[in-house]
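[audit] Reproducing an earlier prediction to check determinism. Same input, same settings, fresh worker. If the tokens differ from the archived copy the diff job will pick it up downstream; this log only records the rerun itself.
[audit] input (320 residues):
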Amino acid sequence: MNPDLQELIDSARPLVRRLILGRPDFDAATVAAAIRSSSGKIYTGVCIHLSCGIGFCAEHAAAAEMIKAGETQIQMIVAVADDCILSPCGRCREFLMQIDPRNAESIVILDGGRTARLGDLLPHHWLIPSTSQSLQPMTTAGTRSAAHAPLSAILSVGHRNMRLVSFDRQSLTNTAEMEAILRLDRENMEAIFSAMGCSMPEERRKQAFDHPGTILMVTDDAGSLLGYLEYGPGWDNPHEIYLSSIQVSRQHQNGSVFRVLLRHALCSAAIPQQQVIRTHVQSSNRKAIRLYERLGFRVDTASEQNGTMVATLIGPPRIK
């Protein structure tokens, strides 16, 4: 067996035993798990079986140890019982994926010396727009080039199905998609510009489609645009990523479309540890500010100008 696999199994196996807890049918440590994180460190944990569904699997305990050390990305994981290696249950697979979507690439050790990617054990995951592609780095050049077809995925949000599509921004120049984006801009922003005593800079807006970047669009079953998110290199610093626009149609501003766009933009990408991501948020939009802060953005109240504030994220988001 591969020495790396054997080392992880050997880290978990000594922890397996049966500890009786509050009743003879309550026990712990019948399964142990070991995680090797992306830094190469090994974290371990054991299961706890209780009544009323309040116990947890060994994978949860090992992941908690990893998170306590400030890490989220898993290189390899194994769960060991007394006489066999166990595949993670469905709840554990989802748990590990939500901790960090890059864990789709994690190696899961299975019985008989076999291994599998976590993403293969949990296909078509809702945090990953296209399961036919490996996770794309979120870079200042965007995630796709104009030569590639757009990525798309069907999402189930509440009782509705939505389609999430990722486009290279430059590929949308003079298309129906660009016109739909401009219509949504007018719907949401015309009154704001009017109150400021000026008209919308529509020609300047169209020129933005000539610059590198990525646009995520959420549409309904009929193809109507519900919202979009746009990002690319920062205007002042091309090494930063700037979320230049997030717009949601008025009838869908209950939060779900906004959350889908923001989480997929940030959580489906492999973001380098020191990457700086900035955006502007309206100071009156408390829901958006709370969501940004939950993802790890720092909202600078001192930066407020014309009713907007700068929000900054350094490195991968916190996924909650």
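[audit] rerun output stored. Observation attached for the diff report: The chain has two domains: 3-121, 151-314.
[audit] end
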